[in-house]
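Field reference: sequence -> structure
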Amino acid sequence: MTRRHSLIFSLLLFFSANAQAVDIDSLFIESVGGQKAYERLKELKSFKVEGRINWNGIDGDYTALYLAPDKILTSADFGKFELVQGYDGKTAWQIDMHGGVSELTGYEKNDLINNLYLLSFEYLLNQNLSRNCEHIEAISTDDSGFHHIICFAIENDTLKFAFRTDNSRLEIFASTVDNLQINTSMHDYKKFEGIYFPTKTITTSPEAPIRAEINIENVEFDLDLEPGLFSMPELKFSDYNFPKDSVSITVPFKYSRGHILVRLKVNGSKFGWFILDTGASASFYDKTFVAEMNLERFGELPAMGLGGFQSLQLTKFDSISVGPVTIYNQTAGVMPLDALAGLIQSKLTFGGLLGYDFFVRFPLLINFRRQTLTIFNPEKFEIEHSRRAVPFQLTMKIPTVRATVNGVRGDFLIDLGNAFGLIIHQNFGRKLAAVGQLKIDSSLSTFLGGVGKGAAVSKISIAKLMLENLEIEISEGLLADSGSGIIGSKYISGNIGTMILENYQILFDYANSRLFLFEPGSSPF
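Structure field:
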């Protein structure tokens, strides 16, 4: 068991404490309506929950399907886009607002499994879990009392529950998603076939501007659900136009101050220069660029950046074109990107960041020496396996590879939006220090900007960087001094940027979760 319901969170601050012995199993059983409700839960084969969701001001329809013992599917349909997450008992996956399908791994997978445990009452039904729970204290607030329970789940995760002392209902559920505290409050319990369900849940986080409210309108039991419904669908796009019979097309780019700038045509008429950014979990458009097009903006969502969060709105585009390749009907984020706009040539119209939704559709070859971007037709793309192939998984839709720094292994983001070299995150820095492999040059420190709050960094010495079997020539890096945002991650060790990647030709193949590094003058094929 792990992190929390994907769309629901909330926190409780506990005050005072009167510890007393409590039968946790009896408390759990009473929380759903007593022994009869518990027996009904044990024999459930499936159920369906339907209602409405408000996600940071965006309204939509919410559906959750559960198939015993360990399958779940959730959908939030907001009209302009839909978000889907699923787990088939082995593989966790998601469909994003662009229709892209990706596997969830690491703490993101744990987060979805936590959805399963909470929604399906697994904390009650799973004997192994309930045996790993402890009653910490009985607490009182101004208007109610709570039993504070913690459970030790898999992956060393700790889940916190607050059950009301007057009726035993579960009112607060708290967990963490990497370095975020995620909290869920549950309200307005109603009985469905004798089982108490919360018909209103509210999710928040103290570290991020997140708020999701779900109101349940109907619950159905023992539906005939096919197991295949919960399996990860095939990744296949049909929302683009690629030149007929072409295997690939090549367009020029400008390489300026560590950023790859590609010229896009938006909605068939407006041109702008966009930073090609694997570190962007979606494409983000500059607020000024969008304002000039008079496009509707809606919602307000948080975007995690280098050192914190930044709010963004969403908008819809009819089309975006890179050379003769066009993608249709896209949803993108809108935020002020003035700091990035100031880094490019003043005569160029800055558009924003071209991120995951572009990379996931096409294999892409970046040649820094020639300053060319080759876009491959995904239906015709082929490449032989190479010793230069580096497998990756997606974390927040960012390619994440296993690497070794000064003999210590970790997971590192491959981030074309990072105009520097190697950035070591704070927690991995502690690991290096623990084995005597961290040498800081305190005379050189600076501040890195970007989406979010940015971060202070110090120069450090790097003796060796290994990416799979490839040794990367590098002598120094940067150590982040902040503990928030991406650089505060407990699981992501660092970030590999263009000052390292520019020494290679890089081929990204998201469909097969791999990238290739080739020498600058060699032929990849």
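Note: Confidence is low (pLDDT under 50) at residues 1-20.
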